Amino acid sequence: MVHDRPDGRNPNQLRPLVCARGLLHRADGSARWSQDNTIVIAAVYGPKAISGRRENPARAVLEVIWKPKMGMAGPSEREAEFILKRTLEYIVLTAMHPNTAISVIIQVVSDDGGALSCAMNAACSALVDAGIPLKGLIAVTCAVDKDGVIYLDPINKEEKEFHGHACLVFPGKPMSSFAPAGLALDSEPIERGIVTSVTKGILSAEDYLNCLERSRAASVKIAEFARSSLEKAQRGVELVVAS
Amino acid sequence: MEVETAQEDLKPAPGQLASSPFINKIVAPGDIVLDLAQLSIPTLRLGGGLRQDQDLVIATKAGRLKYIKPNKIWVEGSQKRYIPSLEDVVIGFVVDRRSESFTVDIGGPVHGSLSIFLFEGATRRNIPNLQAGSVLYMRVVKAHRDMTPELSCVDATGKASGFGHLKNGYVFQCSTGLARALLSRPTCPVLEALGKSLSFEIAVGLNGRVWVNAASVSTIILVSNAIMNAEFLSAAQQQLMVQKLLQRVQES
Description:
Chain A is of the alpha+beta class. Chain A is 31% helix and 30% strand. Chain B contains 4 helices and 16 strands.
């Protein structure tokens, strides 16, 4: 039985996406990612010098700071920081900048559900804006499951009524006109993989796999949007260089 | 002046660089730009923003893919943070003086080191008198991710050639893309437009720093503002902007 969604979307529909890059003057890279009423700003500083016991002579140290919209950061913010750090460590080529630190600061501007996935998309865009060398891009979606029906990109109200909630990070599909045999793990193409999966509540195995398939299809749209936003930003930067 | 850093040499099989569909297009990190198995060039030089993964060349930064015949390829993008690379000209500030070298801030992840002997006519008795905060125009002679970058105030033959202490003037920050544009040939439109009516001295560092000096303070301010504003403008817009600025100054 499919319930009507409070904002009139159908279960597979994502909220409108907006991405602005390079909005902060002092940060090396920044991006604001909004999914309708959920807005998150990510700022990236680095690679910068680091000293003391935190430094790693083989790779850059990634640190994430999550600032909630109101109040002090607590355990749930620490958890979000940890998840983000592990996810971003997958895409950042940390070995290219040993003995440095790369800081990612997430500021939640408004949260109407799906803040973690919004933050991860924003962090990826901010890293690209800062010119940090990356292995690839990521696209993040989340979904809730209610009575066996999967709703993508839930708003706050839907998240509160969920039975199971999943936030899923997929690697962005790389562009290439060749059909390379490379870039596959165990003969499965890289875009069929998954980077991070964060689940809450109760999800049956079948529902989880269902979530995975729907989210993967949605993540393709998010990856396309992120790419076109990246190209537009690059063209803006290039007006001087081209002349 | 085209900026590129050679990082790797490798030997693939048949094909031509120019045939890659990504040449002169914007690439994102993770894009596979070349399949080495299909190239016929004996050695390929990969510049900034590219890495090699077995048989594939993959972009690590967002930017436009450029190439020079027959075998140099790189990604050109613009950043705020500078990563030191060999043979770049940079503007730095002296931070500290040690027994055999100066510690210089070049805007990268770590400070660079400038030996006291790498100045024209430098000897043990004739050490340049540089205080903390002095502005220097240098070139990068050693840059590796695991080591402190090393700088020099002489060119390869031992002459100063414009490197060294920049006295007076004003230094401001810009992005690496704008710095490259200011140094490229033909001359950047904003510099050409300014040069027609004003006389000033300028030094541009690829680390995103620009030093401007002129006889009067108002000229320095005008030139600096014009350059900072030129970042996202096309050639025609830059000329228009400079005209407007000059008009406003002449009226007051």
